[in-house]
Amino acid sequence: MGHAAANLSVSSSQELITWSDSLSVGIQEIDEQHKILVDLLNKLYLAIREHHGNEATVTILDELVDYTRIHFSVEESLMRILDYPDYESHKHHHELLIEQINELRRKVQNGKHIGFELLHFLKNWLTKHIMEEDMEYAPHMLKKGVKANYEQRSWMDRLFHRR
Ligand SMILES: [Fe+2]
């Protein structure tokens, strides 16, 4: 019975976020990076669901902060190179998001229990980031000559599976 009650507040899905085409901005390179962020949030979800403890959670949050920084700097470089008119406000938004995850990380490190509300906060920030912010710059980048698909290997492949 306790189990059934718990299921009312927590989705029975194994994933916090399931990637779908509705999250695609239409630029494969960016989509691949967003998928990595989705994977990290799902990893965090699993760690919390299965009570892996604060130390494991902090490790995942570290990965999330690091990868989010990488992803945001890729986006910011692209926006700058391609003269995206809303660059400043998008960059500001990125800074706020990084601050929020860092804050969360600090709380967990200080022993605070991270609950499902916080996971929902993270889920919202990522889906909002993609669906509201990134969807806006995508048409600009495509118009400026960014390729929708890469013909050869992704940057991950180039970095980690170099021949
Ligand atoms: Fe993004």
TrEMBL record:
Residues annotated as transmembrane: none
Keywords: Iron, Metal-binding, Oxygen transport, Transport
PROSITE patterns assigned: HEMERYTHRINS
SUPFAM superfamilies assigned: Hemerythrin-like (SSF47188)
Family the entry assigns: Belongs to the hemerythrin family.
GO MF annotation list: metal ion binding; oxygen carrier activity
Glycosyltransferase listed as a keyword: no
Limits of the Hemerythrin-like domain: 26-139
Designated name of the protein: Bacteriohemerythrin
CDD domains, per the entry: Hemerythrin (cd12107)
